[in-house]
Amino acid sequence: MPALFNTYNRFDLSVAEAEGTKVTDMNGKTYLDFGSGIGVNNLGHRHLTVQEAVQDQLDKYWHVSNLYHIPLQEDVAQALVNNSAGDYVFFCNSGAEANEAAIKLARKATGKTKIITCKQSFHGRTIATMSATGQEKIQTGFGPLLPSFEYVSFNDIQAVKNAIDADTGAVMLEVIQGEGGVIVGDPTFLKEVEQLCKDNDLLFIIDEIQTGIGRTAKPFGYQHYGISPDVITVAKGLGNGLPVGAMIAKAKYYDVLGPGSHGTTFGGNPLAMAAAKAVLEIVFQDEFIEAVKNKATYLREQLQSKLGELPFVSEIRGKGLMIGIECKDDVSTVVSSLMEKGLLVLNAGPNVIRLLPPLVVTEKEIDLAVQLIAETIQEN
Question: For 215-255, how does the pLDDT look when each residue is reduced to its tens digit (9 = 90+)?
Fold first, then answer.
């Protein structure tokens, strides 16, 4: 028995190597990866440009300290603000840490402790981000939680209005709830939340951990909605597999987190920054985003054509290459059967098959994946 805590329901798959859209196990079996390390390997496994950038940095230095200037941090921060509504960046190691930073920023900026989040949301597993998460199954056994979060129904603007009180400092949400079932935000709801935040002097925080870095065929998912959040959090695809997260905020909050008020030993590590810079130089190109948009359209068309009329399938939804296939029953056997056939997919709750293929996936690979999904659903 391995000397590991039993914190994951692991599949019977031990990875030997991976490249591009493929993963190979210890027995030499190859799988088409439509999970991307849960939306992390947006450029596929071991993307040559990213690998070369990290290797080049390995040959220079791995770590110094955030007490010194690390020029790569400035390059990555500039790329993030050039392609978002934000002006300044704080680097950390994960999505949970990025959301922790956003929570601390909101509290310190407003002097208020209450933050409104949504039911079925997922913001992390630290005490604060678990408290922000509107899913009881994530919280069970770890109470008491921080009492300063109130959960409202996603896409219900009246519920948000009712939750705002004198101690409210922010509203924090995902534009697409990934772990909650790939639930897509309603454009009117998101615009009205933004206006409520302006009217009540609240921070509008968008969690882009899963939707950011090209995943939805925009640099950031919120850009589909014509909104301008005060704070954006990002991780997963930013490092294409190297641990990195970031909080991006507007200029008015620059002075809130001054020296000594927040920090992290490894945040903005040079190796992670080398990877992130290489990722953004590819993903934030207009032609790359356009290619993702075209592939996303093709994937949705194929899914609708092959699965849309199947009795087991209730709905196909999502944006870009972030797709949820809602089914009428538990999908665990479908996910396992697909792995046996050489296709790796995810679930999002008990009855949603979640597809997060690498953004470099080909139409031929999309055809194969859709064929296998359709066959497997019909067999179950």
Answer: 999 999 999 999 999 999 999 999 999 999 999 999 999 99
Domains: count for the chain? 2
Q: What is the pLDDT of residue 380?
A: 79
Kindly list the distances between the CA atom of residue 296 and the CA atoms of 99, 225, 231, 243, 338, in Å, as whole numbers in the listed order: 28, 18, 27, 26, 21
Give 217-222's long-range contacts (Cβ < 8 A, gap of 24+): 217/289, 217/292, 217/293, 217/296, 217/319, 217/320, 217/321, 218/289, 218/320, 219/83, 219/84, 219/283, 219/284, 219/289, 220/83, 220/84, 221/174, 221/175, 221/176, 221/319, 221/320, 222/85, 222/175, 222/190
* 145 and 251 assigned to the same domain: yes
CB burial of 165-187 (b: ≥16 within 10 Å; e: otherwise) equals eeebbbbbbbbbbbbbbbbbbee
The model carries a pTM of 0.97
Question: Do residues 80 and 190 both lie within one domain?
Answer: yes
Query: Which residue has 């179950």 as its token pair?
Result: 380
Q: What letter does residue 119 receive in the DSSP assignment?
A: B
Could you tell me if 230 and 365 lie in one domain?
no
Question: What is the residue range of 88's domain?
Answer: 49-283
pLDDT band at 52 (very low <50, low <70, confident <90, very high): very high
- 27 and 77 housed in the same domain: no
Answer with the one of 283, 301, 323 that is the final residue of a domain: 283
Tell me the per-residue pLDDT of 328-344, one tens digit each, with 9 for 90 and over. Answer: 999 999 999 999 999 99
Residue 313, in any domain of the structure: yes
Strand 203-207 relative to strand 245-249, pairing: unpaired
Identify the helix (H) or strand (E) that includes residue 276.
Answer: helix 270-283
* Residue 120 to residue 178: CA distance in whole angstroms: 9
**Average pLDDT of span 306-327:** 97
Question: Does 1 reside within a domain?
Answer: no
Residue 229 falls inside a structural domain:
yes
The CATH code of the domain that includes 124 is 3.40.640.10
Q: Annotate 14-42 with DSSP letters as a single string.
A: -EEEEEBTEEEETTS-EEEESSHHHHT-T
DSSP state of 45: B
Mean pLDDT calculated for residue range 306-316 = 96
| The residue to which tokens 């009855």 are assigned | 351
Would residue 188 count as lying in a domain? yes
